[in-house]
Structures are given as structure tokens and as C-alpha cells.
Amino acid sequence: MPPHRPSAAGVPAGSGGESGPEERGSEESGSPVRQALSDSVYERIKAMVMDHEIAPGARAGIEALARTLKVSPTPVREALARLESDGLVVKRALSGYRATELLTPQGLEELYEMRLLLEPRAAALAAGNATEAQLDGLERIVEEMQSHPSPNGRYASYRDFAALDQRFHEAIGRAAHRPLLADAVERLHAHLHIFRLSTVVVAVGPTVAEHERILRAVLRRNAERAAEAMTDHLTRSMERQSEDGE
Is 128 exposed, middle or buried (0-12, 13-18, 19+ CB in 10 A)? Predict the structure, then answer.
């Protein structure tokens, strides 16, 4: 997706202005309201990074973002800290936050190498160790994915599908009942990095079909088939991303 031209502060040019009384009041009021504001700002800045409105490598200035979003700096600072843990921004001494660079072809290959080491094993263990509640949860995720419309390339359209995709893989990791393995799968933040790469974000049909195959193997408690299905899914996903990047 062609990046939007960032402003000098690394964010899109927009109307300025200080936080209005409503925003300040919401932030200073009860915890649920403040959390809702924090979550909203996080999602708005995340969308800016995912859609390249904050270009890869560009500065994400707290004050400039606060002016653009018409909120105080506090929820912006909190959002950037969360995005840093997501791997979408980095904090550098003396220069503040910047959006992370996109994966290079080599970086994409290395990411999938790590996934191929971790996730087939997680799927095999999930087939043997998943609780009934975890199996039910996996089925619900796949059912939601089956009814999801095809995304059009903007973050707003693929956000929910991307979240479901990530939830499925992380749920497999947790169902393995190996905390270190599950933590490693989650810390890769693979979906966020992959979904930033191009306008053709994901092939919904093939992705859902591949998830269904993994699910069937796990439901049948077939560890070997679960590992094979996960390997096949990751290999095909890598091929789709490579073809899209050519």
C-alpha cells in the first residue's frame, strides 16, 4: 500500500487544537471511561501505523499525535507503550518513538522459519492436551472466520479478521499446555508484521480452509496430522506473501 505523506512530526497533517473539555473530562473521570479512551487512542494510532499513515521508520511524536487526535498526551503515551510491546513502534534515546521498518524478504523468511519451528509442535501438543473448553474456543474462532467478509486492504476492513487469525494461532499455543512455547508464539507478533506488508492482506478462503484442517486434526486428537496441517498452512501462507511481494 503506498504510504500516505506524513507530516514533519511523523503523523498525518490534520487540524490542530488542544484537548477539549470533553476529552479531558473523559480522561480524568472513572477508570472504565479512561480505559475506553486509552483503547480508542491505541486503535487509532495502530491503524495509522498499519496503513502507513505513519510511514515505516517515521517519528511518532507524542505531542503531534495528541494534537491530531485531539486528546491529551497521556493516552497517546500509553498507546505508544502498548504498540512498542506489539513490535509496531520502537523507542530510541533522544528521538522518541518511531514506527518500525517493514519486514524485508529475508526478515519475512526468518519469521516463517521461527513459526515453522514452533507452531507445528504446538499444534501436535494441542491435539493431545487441549481441554474441552479450549476445543470449543477454537471452534468458535473458526466459525467467526468463516462468516467474515473479504478485506479490502485498509486496516479498518481487515482488523477483525487479523485479530481472529492471531487468536486462532495463539489459542493453539495455549492449548499445547506449554507456557514457554505459547509465550514464544505470542511474542513473535507475526500477524501484525505480515499484515503491514501489502494491500493484498490475506486470502480469506484459503486461510479459513487451512485453519479448518488444523482444527479437525486437533479435535480428532491426531497429533501427527495437526502438525502436518499447521506446517502446510504456514508454508502456503509464506508462499502467498512471497508472491504478493513480487
Answer: middle
Least Cα distance to 35 among 75, 80, 65, 82 occurs for 75
Helices 21-28 and 31-50: crossing angle in degrees, nearest 10, is: 120
Burial (CB count within 10 angstroms: exposed 0-12, middle 13-18, buried 19+), residue 102: middle
pLDDT at 10 over 60: no
Please tell me the distance from the alpha carbon of residue 196 to that of residue 50, in angstroms, as a whole number. Answer: 5
Question: What tens digit of pLDDT does each residue of 153-209 get?
Answer: 678 778 888 889 999 999 999 999 999 999 999 999 998 888 888 654 567 889 999
* Rounded Cα–Cα distance for residues 189 and 194 (Å): 9
**SS3 letters across 106-142:** HHHHHHHHHHHHHHHHHHHHHHHHCCHHHHHHHHHHH
One-letter amino acid for residue 174 of the chain: R
* CA 19 to chain CA mean position, Å: 29
Q: For the whole model, what pTM was predicted?
A: 0.79
N- to C-terminal Cα separation, the chain:
14
Distance CA(86)–CA(147), nearest Å, equals 27
